[in-house]
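ok so for the tutorial part 2 we go from a plain amino acid sequence to predicted structure tokens. step 1 is just haveing the sequence, like this:
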Amino acid sequence: MTRIFQHGLLVVLLLSSPHSFSQSTFQQLFPGLQNSMGNNAHRSLNGGVTFATWAYDQFGMSGRDMVLISLSDQGDTLWTRTYGRPHNDQSFSMLGTADGGYLIVGGTDTSDIINPGQQLYLIRTDAFGDTLWTRAYWRSSYDYGLAATECFDGGFTIVGTSSPGGLYLVRIGAQGNLIWSRVFDKRDPPFFDSQVPTAWGVAQLVDGSFIVCGNHQSGAALVSNINSVGDLLWTRRTDIGNVVALRQIVATQDGGCLMVGPIQIDGDYDCLFVKSDSLGTIAWSRAYDCGGDESLFSIIQTTDSGFAVAGYTTEAIPAPHDMYFLKTDSVGLVQFSISFGGSSVDIGQDVVEADDGGYFIVGYTKSFGYDTSMYAMKINLTDDGACYQNNISTIVTDVNLVWQDIELESFSSLLIEHSGACSVGRGATVLPLCPVGVDEVMPDKSNVQVFPNPATARITITLPSNSTRSELEVFNALGERMMASRVRSSQTMIDCSSFARGIYLVKVTTSTTTVTQRVVLE
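step 2 — the prediction. this is what the tokens look like for a chain of 522 residues:
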């Protein structure tokens, strides 16, 4: 089922394959900005999907605000949340936590503290997007959190980028309390010379230590192993025979991890897999090529011990970029290779495994009549799809990466910690695109309107002026009629404050037509 979500300047499209797929998923879009990160979509407790993004000016103030949108396994909006402070707030990744909640990782403006700039910003929510706590941590003039992992003790470790440089890690407890923070470099701050601009991903190994992946300024990939108290064990980088970076990491079922990113081979960029064992030793490396430039942004290990990744390929003609989905076995051998896209840019940024063995793929697009839009789809691996889908060939090549040890030191990083309180709002509008299965006929806006959707306590029905004597009914998800009344004016408000949170059908029967629309109560 395809959906478009419009939230301020944010436009989100959701698309599933036109077969009997029962679920849909989503990932974030950044209007005017191509997000280079993945890991923003996670399966929710009800089998649906929740994803994070940002939108402009949701509270009547300047700058960006963070957004969470949660969908059912049918692609219906269950709830939305918007989080904002007076200036820019931007999410770069979102972690699904063990209790079913979420941790949003990003940055926020620092104009309310010592110096103007950016600070690491975290929002911890429950399974419904309601905030449990918010924290902001300020070290220098420019700090962002780019990725996080939930630790065995229920706390979190966050990696990101910081000025003036160095590998940057922050370890916090389950309630957001700061445990330690470290910067790893060759010399004591601020005299950095490690040429390590960014740490992109982090995972915890079975011994409690952390593997951090990133990139070196020389064009090399970087991997570090850091113990549970923040001591650096070792750092290695690839030699610079190939331009390579590692952008995402996932802990694997065998106690190791798999890292992915771009690698340049013979002038083209291919996808790189780097597998590490439980001791942090590199076990194997493979490159994946569809014939053009390829890049991967998100990776998961699947229930069959294989891997699924989302990214893009330029192999499609005439489109400049198509969304790329790759499924491999446990040692990286290709099982499925598919691309999706229209006439313009389509980028896959997240992949989530569904309960039925299918996959949600999420990204952004410029192919469907909007400048930039969120794009997500549900696929399975047994049917051919007709919704902008192409089967493509992927060639796998073993890559012999040469790794060099780098001597870095560990430095404590003094952080200023404060609550980072934010405003919280709700609301999004759902419109249809590329419907699947039974078409969902939406009302003509010139005839009947039902809004807002999602709603909280009230729903407004607007009718043409010549259809004021109409019948109105509301049904719950089980088909039970919750209310029935006669509409006697062109605009009628329904009080839903006594209804439980969930999905309802609003049926309006006029003298000329019957309109049925789904409405979500948050």
